[in-house]
C-alpha cells in the first residue's frame, strides 16, 4: 500500500475518535521491555494528539512478584488475585504508585505530552470493599482462604478523572483502591480498567498484553472479532484460561456496560495499538456486545 493510502485509511477513524474517551490497560508483561513500553507510549501520545481523552490503567504484577521475592516473600494467587498481607500491600504500592506510575508519566513527558499520575484512592475514584474469603481446593480438601487487602470494586467516582481529561491531561492510574474506612486495597488492573471505562462512558477499552489477541484452543489463530456471548463460551470450554480470563471478563463488563468496543492487542509488537485502531484489518481481537 502506498504511504498516502495508509494515511487516508486512518482518516475516518481519526474523525470518529476525535473527542472520545479511550481507556488503555497496560499489562505488566507488556512493560517488561523498555523499548516496547516506549513504543506503546508513543502510540498513546498520538491518540491524545488526534483528540482522544486518554486514561492509562497500568498493572505491574511481574514487578511486584520480583520485589516480593527479593524481600524473601513467595507470592500466592487465588483465582488470579494476589494474596495481599500488610507487607505485600506496601510493596504493591511502592511498585505500582511509586515506581511504575511515575515512570509512565515521565515517558509521556519525554514524548512531548502532559500526564498526571494518580491511583484509584485519589479523589476516591475507585471505591472498593475487602473481598470475602474464597473457597480453594487444596488436594482433596476445600478450604476458605482470606486474600487480605484485596478489594472488589463497589463504585467509581469519576469526577477527578473527568476534570483531568477535560483539562487536557493524559491520566495514568495505578490499581489501588480505597474503602469506606479510608484503607487502601490492592485490585486487579484489568478489573479496574473495565470499570473505569464503563464509568467514563468510554468509546473504547484497549487491553495491551503479551499475546496477539484471543486465540483458538490450539493457539494458532487469533479471533479478529468476538461477541460477548462467544467469549463466554470460550471461557466455559477452557479455550480462554489463566491470565486471559480477567482481561476478557473486564472487556465483557465494558461492552455490556455501554462501551461499544473492547480490544485485546499485543503490546510487545511495535505500534499494535495504532494498527488495531486505525486500519480496516486490525491486528488484535475486537470484542463487541
Ligand atoms: N485463548 C487465549 N488466547 C490467548 N492467550 C491466552 C488464552 N488463554 C490463556 N491465555 C494466556 O493469557 C496470557 C495473558 O495474561 P497475563 O500473562 O496475565 O498478561 P498481563 O501481564 O499482560 O496482564 C497469555 O500470555 C496466555 O498465556
Ligand atoms: C489483587 C491483585 O492481584 N492485584 C494485582 C495488581 C497489579 C496487576 O493487576 O498487574 P498486571 O496487570 O500486570 O497483572 C497484583 O498484585 O498483581
UniProtKB/TrEMBL annotation:
The record marks 25, 247 as: Transition state stabilizer. Pathway: Amino-acid biosynthesis; L-arginine biosynthesis; N(2)-acetyl-L-ornithine from L-glutamate: step 2/4. InterPro entries: AceGlu_kinase-like_sf, AcgluKinase_fam, ArgB, Asp/Glu/Uridylate_kinase, Glu/AcGlu_kinase, NAGK-C. The keyword Transport does not apply. One of its GO terms (biological process) is L-arginine biosynthetic process via ornithine. Its EC number is 2.7.2.8. Pfam families: AA_kinase. It is found in: Cytoplasm. Substrate binds at residues 60-61, 82, 186. One of its GO terms (cellular component) is cytoplasm. One of its GO terms (molecular function) is acetylglutamate kinase activity. It comes from the Archaea. Keywords: Amino-acid biosynthesis, Arginine biosynthesis, ATP-binding, Cytoplasm, Kinase, Nucleotide-binding, Transferase. This is Acetylglutamate kinase. It comes from Methanofollis aquaemaris. The lineage of its organism: Archaea, Methanobacteriati, Methanobacteriota, Stenosarchaea group, Methanomicrobia. The gene is argB.
Amino acid at each position: 500500500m502506498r504511504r498516502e493510502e495508509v494515511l487516508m485509511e486512518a482518516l475516518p477513524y481519526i474523525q470518529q475518535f476525535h473527542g472520545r474517551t479511550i481507556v488503555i490497560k497496560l499489562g505488566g508483561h507488556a512493560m517488561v521491555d523498555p523499548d516496547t513500553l516506549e513504543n506503546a507510549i508513543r502510540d498513546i501520545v498520538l491518540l491524545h494528539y488526534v483528540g482522544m481523552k486518554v486514561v492509562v490503567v497500568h498493572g505491574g504484577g511481574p514487578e511486584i512478584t520480583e520485589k516480593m521475592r527479593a524481600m524473601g516473600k513467595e507470592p500466592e494467587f487465588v483465582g488470579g488475585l494476589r494474596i495481599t498481607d500488610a507487607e505485600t500491600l506496601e510493596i504493591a504500592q511502592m511498585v505500582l504508585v511509586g515506581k511504575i506510575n511515575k515512570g509512565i508519566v515521565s515517558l509521556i513527558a519525554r514524548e512531548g505530552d502532559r500526564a498526571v499520575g494518580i491511583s484509584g484512592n485519589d479523589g476516591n475514584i475507585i471505591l472498593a470493599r475487602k473481598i470475602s474469603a474464597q473457597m480453594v481446593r487444596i488436594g482433596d480438601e476445600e478450604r476458605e482462604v482470606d486474600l487480605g487487602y484485596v478489594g472488589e470494586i463497589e463504585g467509581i467516582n469519576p469526577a477527578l478523572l473527568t476534570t483531568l481529561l477535560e483539562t487536557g491531561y493524559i491520566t495514568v492510574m495505578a490499581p489501588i483502591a480505597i474503602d469506606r474506612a479510608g484503607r487502601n486495597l490492592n485490585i486487579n488492573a484489568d478489573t479496574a480498567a473495565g470499570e473505569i471505562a464503563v464509568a467514563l462512558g468510554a468509546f473504547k477499552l484497549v487491553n495491551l498484553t503479551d499475546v496477539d489477541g484471543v486465540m483458538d484452543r490450539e493457539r494458532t489463530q487469533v479471533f479478529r472479532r468476538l461477541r460477548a456471548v462467544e467469549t463466554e463460551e470460550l471461557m466455559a470450554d477452557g479455550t480462554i484460561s489463566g491470565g486471559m480470563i480477567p482481561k476478557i471478563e473486564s472487556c465483557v463488563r465494558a461492552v455490556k456496560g455501554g462501551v461499544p468496543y473492547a480490544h485485546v492487542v499485543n503490546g510487545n509488537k511495535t505500534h499494535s495499538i495504532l494498527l488495531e485502531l486505525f486500519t480496516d484489518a486490525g491486528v488484535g481481537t475486537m470484542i463487541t456486545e
